[in-house]
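The material for today's practical consists of a large collection of protein records. Backbone structure tokens are a discrete shorthand for how the chain folds in space. An example says more than a description, so a record of this kind follows:
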Amino acid sequence: MTSRTAQNGGHYGAIVVGGGQAGLSASFHLSRAGIDHLVVEKKTAMHKWRDERWDAFCLVTPNWQCQLPGHPYDGDDPNGFMVKHEILGYLDRFKAKVKPPILEHTAVTAVERHAAGFRVETSAGSFTADAVILATSLYGTPSTPRAAERLPDDILQLHTVDYRSAEALPPGAVMVVGSGQSGAQIAEDLHLAGRKVHLATGNAPRCARFYRGREVVDWLWDIGQYNITIADDGMGKKRHDTNHYLTGRDGGRDIDLRRFAQDGMALYGRVKGVSGGRMLFEADLTSNLDAADRVYNGINALIDRHIAEKGIEAPPPSVYVPLWEPAEEPAELDLAAAGITSVIWATGFRPDWSFVGLPIFDGTGYPVQRRGVTAVPGLYVLGLPWLWTWGSGRFLGVAADAEHVVEHLTAAVAAPRQLMAQAG
């Protein structure tokens, strides 16, 4: 069944907190293992995909990488990029296959130790479980800097989760703050709609869409980049990396901020404050663009080495040469004089682990775990970027991580039950 009326005080083999792709992947494997469980979701299953994506949203990885458990991509364009309604259809079909025992519109307020297991307090009552899987991801609460409080009242402010289209904004220029995947794609969406766009950049890297005759993701798959784990040398810092910006729009293409600038988009360094109706910027625009290009060329060089080592016939290599250079580093912008009527904060999210009353976090607030297994027996995390591999937080890798977590959970839950049976 796809919804559930859970009894207050009920006990389960496992409780899954979060009903996104990670939570439902856990449910899939828990059902296959025969473990009675409950998925608790604050809103509705997969709501972020439905309610927190703009109208022109599409995947940035090819459709063939959609590999949810028991539900590989089932369309007719594996090398394409699903748009929003296609993604929702894919996820709806996944949910229908899983039939998760899910309690929606229910907030988890506490996860604590209880006897040999856990007590999970929710807005629908209290439950107990032998194990708990935290599948709430890092994309919890939209984050905006305190500088937002000092913007003039007549400027509309939105986080990326609330942006839908250029047409939904008031007339005028738009400031997009942040050049990660969402910020860069929304800036492009506004630019294509004919809006004057101002973009405050950050340290996000970029990647080519196609190189030497193939989709870059396909090259990286062949090279083995998607098999590298967080346990490999030097990969620990990847957990905090910003995603590369590129797009699957219109069949896929690069996003080149320098080309946007050539076409009239105004670029700035990182926002450092707001004062007197002016937005203030760091003098790091040039270094931000150069750093993104170094990553772009570095990925292409990795592909070049692979092609040479394997003796693969392919079009000749190339190195990206900047199309545009900043004439200056703008220190500030008078928002009213620039005609800016909207500011879109593409400044990420803050994870919300406040309900977890157990010692599993490091000094940065990130859960300490190895492929989802924490030091607290019976407590697991799932769906985080680089939980184990590059694909862990995506449709590509979450199935394998969920299977690993449930295998560990099954063994951990079975052991004490076997001891009790022997004692009985």
